[in-house]
Amino acid sequence: MATNITEDDEGKKVVADDGETVGIVADVEHGTAYVEPDPGLTEKLKSKLGWGERDEDTYPLQEEAVEAVTDDEVKLR
Length: 77
Known about the structure:
By secondary structure, this protein is mainly beta. It has a single domain (about 5-75), classed as SH3 type barrels (Roll), CATH 2.30.30. It contains one helix and six strands, in the order E-E-E-H-E-E-E. It has one helix spanning about 40-50; strands spanning about 15, 20-30, 30-35, 60, 65-70, 75. Strands 4-3-2-1-6-5 form a six-stranded mixed beta sheet, covered by helices on one side. The model has no long low-confidence stretch (mean pLDDT about 80). This is PRC-barrel domain-containing protein.
């Protein structure tokens, strides 16, 4: 199942299959989400407002690792 990640997904929490929040989508570029692990409140707000950017603390999320994208979160397999 292909899951399309868009800029609208920036700021969403990323949740492991056990329900634990592992980070947030800090940036999306060319369909690839970049996840910031366990961000602080400032980073969450920046991402929600579309001010997120990639830095050395963000990691690309492989499409095959994503099970679903909901209105509130990105769920991992």
